[in-house]
Amino acid sequence: MTELIGTKSATLLQQTFSALQEDAEFTAILGKRDLSLLFVQYDPESVVFVSAEGVSFTVDDRVPTLRFELSGDTLHQLLTGRLSLPRAAAARLLNVKGPVARLRELGEVLPRVGAKYGELAARQAA
Amino acid sequence: MTTATVVKNPATLSDIGALNSAAMPSLFQLPPDVAQLRDEVREFAENEVKPRRLANDLAPHDDFDWEIVRKGHELGLLRLTMPKDLGGRGVGVLGVAVALEELAAVCASTALIFGASLLGQTSVLASGDPHLQARFLPQFLGDEPVLACNSITEEVAGCDLLIPEMSEYATDVMSARRDGDVYVLNGIKRFITNGKYAEWSTVFANLEGHEGADGLTAFVVPLDSPGVTRGPVADKMGYRACLGTTLTFEDVRVPVENVAFGEGGGWGFLTMQSNQARVTVAAISTGVARGAFNIAREWAGERSQGGKLLYEQQFTARKLAEMTSKIEASRLLYLQAGYQADNMLPAPTYGPAVAKFYADRIAIEVAEEAMSILGARGYCRDYDVEKFVRESFGARIYEGTPEVLALAITGALYGRRS
Lengths: 126, 418
Hints:
The structure holds two protein chains of two kinds. By secondary structure, chain A is of the alpha+beta class. Chain A has helices at 7-20, 24-33, 72-79, 85-90, 110-125, and strands spanning 37-42, 46-51, 54-56, 66-71, 94-97. Chain A contains five helices and five strands; from the N terminus they run H-H-E-E-E-E-H-H-E-H. In chain B, 46% of the residues lie in helices and 15% in strands. In chain B, helix 8 (350-374) packs antiparallel against helix 10 (402-413).
């Protein structure tokens, strides 16, 4: 999947979260947990803010529940299941701001993101 | 003799619970669950720990008071950081720190029993590994208390196993050799709090083939595994109610599933763990200072010399003012660092190191002044102050000496660490 690292993966990330807006269960989980996530990706640069209300690709004044700052490569590995969040944090591959205890709630969210991400990646590769 | 009324819990600057009850404004607000925990632990410390602290301190160095652990377990002190949906109390670093200050204000030694067990659990909790969690956490939810421990220190390697930049210089570090589906551990860990009775330990060992401690890896090891020997127990100057034990590992076979954070992930985890733990040790030191200060404050309010109570004498008043100022500052530092540790990953280096650096020092200073205010009584065991003096020196050693902390602090100041 290394071919996706670069501008393409930034686009793919945004496409993934856009597609997930059609997934009622995904947005219901975010709504039920009152959870909003901001991914600030570098190398390549990309921003995704996602909540039950929708997704946006710009930084604004909204404060997310959890803010992630990480490289495109790290995000790619997280979403493809090659790296776990705890290991990434311990290896200082990402920075998280927000209540650390709420990271557990991503156990319900990240697999859905990963599945959609993998599905779109496979479709693009085909 | 004239005596002054000593206000039991005065609404001091940083005693947030007291501020709340006195309806005084504060920049800080403890989360409701932490505030409740704080009150419960304060009551437990006063009613259960305080009556036993002298006896536990005077007991032989390898005696252990399971009854106090059992009562603390009933309160949930051995599962503080386990999420609520797993049966724990679900507090973070801030909550643990606040609870440990309450215990340490009565008996630091008892605080460390619970603190060391929680520290041992962090590898399993923070790994997010559901298999490790299913195997090693449920035992803390039973009726009987169960302890964990964290095994880092070795005979030759102390600070070399706390400062990542020094890892290549570590010598004779416990080794881990892969053999099929298991790792074989060999080495000796020293001064391991709870080592004598813990069910399992997080054990740091260096993978074979790596220089120094460059291959540091965290293993979760049941301490009834063949090849593990416990003892002897260290005969310590303070912290006598908690047992620091040597653990010997001789060809101990540990399944590969028991690795937390992956092969070579030990340093990353250890750094994160240390940064969090330093907050809680700063809280213990703050508690030690507070415990000693409370005795001195009470004494200075009832002891009269030269026709005036001690606290009315300028020299003693100055001492009391300095002591309470130091405690206030120390508490504010650890509360801020604890809040940071609960709200960022990787856990910050600077805040916890500064908090511990300061708290460890003022604990010694305040305890020593408290002893001087009590005069001859301060030198006698049954007035408790001398116990606080002895224990004030303990926290300066574990989870980073002032020398280690100074390197962490300057590392942050010069941009080498966060």
